[in-house]
Amino acid sequence: MKKILIINASPRKNGVCQRLIKTVIDNLPEDIQIKQYDAYKMGIKPCIGCGYCDKHKECAFRDMDTFREDFENCDAFIIASPVYFSSFPSPMKALIDRFQVYYAMRFTHNIKPPIKKFRPSLLILTAGSDNKTEIESVKAQAKQFLSIMNTQICEVFCKTNTDTKEITAADITAVKEATIYLMKSTILSVE
Question: pTM above 0.85?
Fold first, then answer.
């Protein structure tokens, strides 16, 4: 059974990110195992740059152990996030910074890749405005941290102008198509 891990990085319980995640889930095959995390409920401590991961190949904090296990074992990864000032919201940024353990495994311990299993990912971004520079900044950040962990963005969906515009039928169709593409990428990447 294929496993998909989804992170919702939005603080809004029924916001645009959550509605787009529901569209993704509604369009996944029934035999897919789905695990969802809410970045705002995870309570991830920020990286303190202590260097523990450089010495021990793991983090000094244990608050991400279950998430890391789910991430390392998933077949596909989905991030749904609003764009805040050209970046991810702070709970998601804390999670990203804590991926430092994989960076240390790759570059300090020479474990390449630090996660053997390749996984495709879908990046869903929402923004109150249509500032393309902000969107590109977040996409670049995601590409960088995911590549270290043997994860590649196969599709990006951006819903802009959410401060003034609702989700449209065209948005739903685009998310459905992105989900189909992710599933095709997953099938091709898993033995």
Answer: yes
